[in-house]
Amino acid sequence: MSHERKNTGKRKYTNDSYKKASAPKSRAQKPKASVKQATVKKSESGEIRLNKYIANSGICSRREADMHISIGSVTVNGKVVTEMGYRVKLNDEVRFDGARINPEKKAYVLLNKPKGFATTTSESKGKTVMDLVANATSSRIKPIGRLGRNSTGLLLFTNDDELTKKFTNSKTGVQRLFHVELDKNLKQEDLKKIQDGITVEGKKITVVEASYINNAPKKEIGIAILNTGNGVLRTIFEHLGYDLLKVDCVMIGDLTKKDIPRGHWKHLTEKEVINLKHFK
Q: Are 245 and 38 contacting, i.e. CB atoms less than 8 angstroms apart?
């Protein structure tokens, strides 16, 4: 991209940086057949003691959990539970002092999504992104945001509610950089409208940045947004009279797909998770 952030910490994206973000290496994990998925779901349907559920979340020990249960600090599905030995399911909503807790290990999986897979957890939608990460972890991860069935690129999965909240905050969310291709060259005046923020049906749509990609036709655009869904891209360009031919997410925060071939995934490192949580 030819546009460069001046003194706000913004980056300059070139055609080379898109290629670098796309270059596959061997460290990523290739998704396997989802034959274990039914087994995982079956184990998740079992019940465990409430004090163990709390202890597994890292809040306190099982003995301390019993004390907190007895004084009414714990609710299950909105109701206070004081009964010792009470059993819960993993999909129950358990709150400790008002905050929801999760007994599973936090998992962070980054997928380089290929075409033809819907971003949904529903099993009635044909091939979905959940099929691609079925064996990545036993934790109940979900995708943050959406990529259309025919869109490609980075998609993050996690069971970390706090990180999900950060992404879905429209003002302080984590930006995603897209490489889009239009049916025709984007006019300079239309690029300026996108950069300044355009109003569609009475609602102003603001992007982090947008610019042409260096050494590429002017129908190829780099655009960074905070929105978790990429439908906003289609709204922007169709409003200006362009059709979106390709949409590829090349960066999420500082994460790139340089070591993740298309259709593969990887677990984020501890450093990558920390950087993502503090990304601005």
A: no
CATH number belonging to domain 15-33+106-277: 3.30.2350.10
Residue with tokens 């299950």: 76
- Look at residue 193 and give its three-state secondary structure: helix
Measured distance CA(68)–CA(60) in Å, rounded: 10
Residue range 121-132, pLDDT digits in tens = 887 778 999 999
Domain range list for the chain: 15-33+106-277, 47-89
Q: What's the fold here for domain 47-89?
A: 3.10.290
Q: CB-hemisphere CA count at 13 Å for 103?
A: 21
The number of angstroms, rounded, from the C-alpha of 136 to the middle of its chain's C-alpha atoms is 15
Sequence-distant (6+) residues with CB within 8 A of 62 are 49, 51, 52, 54, 55
The answer to pTM > 0.85 is no
